[in-house]
Write a structure and sequence with these properties.
By secondary structure, the protein is of the alpha/beta class. It is 52% helix and 9% strand. It has helices at 20-31, 56-59, 78-94, 106-114, 124-137, 139-149, 151-156, 162-175, 179-183, 204-221, 223-232, 247-254, 260-282, 299-311; strands at 10-13, 33-37, 64-65, 98-103, 196-201, 288-292. Strands 3-2-4-1-5-6 form a six-stranded parallel β-sheet. The longest helix is centred in the C-terminal third of the chain and has 23 residues, at 260-282.
Length: 317
C-alpha cells in the first residue's frame, strides 16, 4: 500500500464496542484515509456520549465526517444517509484522499454498498388514513396489525415507533408484500462503488465484557446529564434521536421509573442483544473479510487488515 497507488475505499464494520474506531484511526493515520461515520444515530449533535461518537483524543487529528451533522429534531433515513455519504466521499476524493466508512448499522451499510431497495409509491390517501388510525386507534393497535401482515418487521420495530410502523403498513397495503421481503432483496449486481469490506469481530465473552465496560464508562462520562440537558433545552422525548440504543432507559431513569443499577443492567443487556443482531446482518454481507480482534490493542488486527488490503485485486467488487 505504499507508493502512488491510493488505498481502496474501505468500509469497516462490526458489532458495537468491538474496537472499530481504534482500528479505523490507525488505518487512517498510516494510509491517509478520512473517516465517515456509517452509524444511524451518531449523526445527531448533543448525543455524543450516548451514541459513542469518537472524541478528539480518540481521533488524534484524523478527519471524521458525519458525526453531529444534524440537529436532534431533524429526521434521518437510510436515503438521507446514502446521499450524505456520497457528498462526503466526493469531497474527500476531491482532496486526493480516500474515504473509510466506519459503522455497525446493518441496513445502512447494505444500502451504502448495494443501493436502496425499490419501495412502491404510496397513495396520499393511504398515508393520511394510517396516520389518522394512529391518532384514533393508537400505535399499539397498528403494531398488532403489522404483526399479522409482517411478523418479522413487527418484531424489529418497537410498538412505540409510529413512523416506522406506518411505513411498514404502507408498503404492505400498497404492494401486498412485506417490507421485510423487499429489504432482503437487494439487487445482486456490482456494488455502487469499488470498495473493500472488513468486519471486525471478537469472541462473544470478550465482546460482552467490552460492552459492559463501555456502558459503565459512558454513564460515568455523563450520559445521564447529556439527556437531561437535551430535555431541559426543550427537546421532545419522542424525537427519533431518542430511539438510539439506551436512551429510552436513561429517559425512564430521569422520570423516576428505573433505578441506577437497573439502568446499567438493562442497557448492557440491550446492547449485547443489539450486537448479536448486528452480527446477523453482517454475516449476510458478500465479499467481507472477517478479522478477529482478540485483545484491547487495535494493532493486533491492524496487520491482518493491511495484509489483506495490500493483496487485494485492483478492481474490487
Amino acid at each position: 500500500m505504499s507508493g502512488a497507488t491510493p488505498p481502496p475505499t474501505l468500509i469497516l464494520a462490526g458489532p458495537t464496542a468491538v474496537g472499530k474506531t481504534e482500528l479505523a484511526v490507525e488505518l487512517a493515520r498510516r494510509h491517509g484515509y478520512e473517516l465517515v461515520s456509517a452509524d444511524s444515530m451518531q449523526v445527531y449533535r448533543g448525543l455524543e456520549i450516548g451514541t459513542g461518537q469518537p472524541t478528539p483524543e480518540q481521533l488524534r487529528g484524523v478527519p471524521l465526517h458525519g458525526c453531529g451533522a444534524l440537529d436532534p429534531a431533524e429526521p434521518f433515513s437510510v436515503k438521507h444517509f446514502v446521499d450524505l455519504c456520497a457528498e462526503y466521499a466526493q469531497a474527500i476524493r476531491s482532496r486526493g484522499r480516500t474515504p473509510l466508512f466506519v459503522g455497525g448499522s446493518g441496513m445502512y451499510l447494505r444500502a451504502l454498498r448495494w443501493g436502496l431497495f425499490e419501495a412502491p409509491p404510496v397513495p396520499i390517501s393511504l398515508r393520511r388514513r394510517l396516520r389518522k388510525d394512529v391518532e384514533t386507534l393508537g400505535v399499539q393497535a397498528l403494531h398488532a396489525r403489522l404483526s399479522r401482515l409482517d411478523p418479522a418487521a413487527a418484531g424489529r420495530i418497537p410498538a412505540t415507533d409510529p413512523v416506522r410502523i406506518v411505513r411498514a403498513l404502507e408498503v404492505a397495503e400498497t404492494s401486498g408484500r412485506s417490507i421485510t421481503s423487499l429489504q432482503t432483496q437487494w439487487p445482486a449486481r456490482r456494488a455502487r462503488f469499488p470498495h473493500r469490506l472488513i468486519v471486525l469481530t471478537c469472541p462473544r465473552p470478550a465482546l460482552a465484557r467490552r460492552i459492559n465496560r463501555r456502558v459503565e464508562a459512558m454513564l460515568a462520562k455523563g450520559w445521564i446529564e447529556e439527556v437531561r440537558r437535551l430535555l431541559e433545552s426543550g427537546r421532545d422525548p419522542t424525537l427519533h434521536c431518542f430511539k438510539a440504543l439506551g436512551y429510552r432507559q436513561v429517559l425512564s431513569h430521569l422520570a423516576g421509573g428505573m433505578t441506577r443499577p437497573a439502568l446499567v443492567a438493562e442497557i448492557q443487556a440491550k446492547t449485547r442483544q443489539f450486537a448479536r443482531r448486528q452480527l446477523t446482518w453482517l454475516r449476510k454481507e458478500a465479499d467481507a473479510r472477517w478479522i478477529a480482534h482478540g485483545g484491547e490493542d487495535p494493532l493486533q488486527a491492524l496487520s491482518a487488515a493491511e495484509n489483506w488490503l495490500a493483496a487485494a485485486a485492483p478492481e474490487p467488487l
